[in-house]
Amino acid sequence: MKRDHKVITTRVMKRFSEIDFLDDVAKVPWEQVVQSSNDINELVIKWSSLFSSLIDKHAPYREIRVSEKFCPWISTDLKYLIRRRDQLKQAAVRNNSMSLMMTYRNVRNQVTTLNRQLKKQYFAQKITKEEGNMKATWQIVNQFLNKRSKSTSINSLNVDGREILQKDAIANSMNKYFCSIGNDLANEIPYTPNPLLNNEYTVNAHESTFRFSEISAHDVAQAMNQMKTTKSVGTDKISSYFLKLAIPYVSKSIAQLLNISTRNSIFPESWKTARVTPIFKEGDKGEPSNYRPISILPVLTRFFKN
Questions:
Q1: Sequence spans of domains, the chain
Q2: Most buried of 27, 80, 186, 227, CB within 10 angstroms?
């Protein structure tokens, strides 16, 4: 039976060397990079492009074929038994040998028993490791039950009675829908006066002041430690995994970027752009309303949240 495969674009970590990567990161004068202009938009693009290029050098993107079957518990011993089982079956059928067929069945039973033991051990260890983390625990349970994530591939879309088949047109239509849904829902909410806007609640500007505190390299490093380590990326193609590795070398420059942004009251344009993935819910896959958006912002925006 032919196995199902799909092609994905991912960073290849097989030859990734943390030492070599950090050596290149340490060679870059990051503080000088963020002092090369007064334009925060230009600085953010320059910083992100430079950091992303270092990741590309050590962990380049590649298109690879992956099997749909999820079996990370398979050991070297089990692989050997599987090959042995398949060879014995072929030999038994080819030679019409009852003795080889009996040997094949014996090895087949060994494969089944060992596979069950290894699978049980694998998921037991995973559950124990993620104790207290309900989200991770349910992900493990779904893996055990072989529940696949809902496909994000959209082959056609119904827009204003027209069927759209071109990939670019589908993407633009989904973007338009997701961008408009907020305003459309807001317009359906009846207007009610807000008492907080009355003069009695107005803050006297001469009696009250507000200011941001300067962000330090220590603040950045501390926020980075609290951030979840993932390999998901936004439009900058920088994951928290690589940033966490390099934080001792780049924390000061990141703090400078954040301070320039708050000091000038400008939120960089590139930080406003998210990488959006439509996740199918239920119903007709051709209807935009049957999808929910998952948005991933550039990793540096998370420091404002933290």
A1: 5-68+165-187+214-305, 76-144
A2: 227
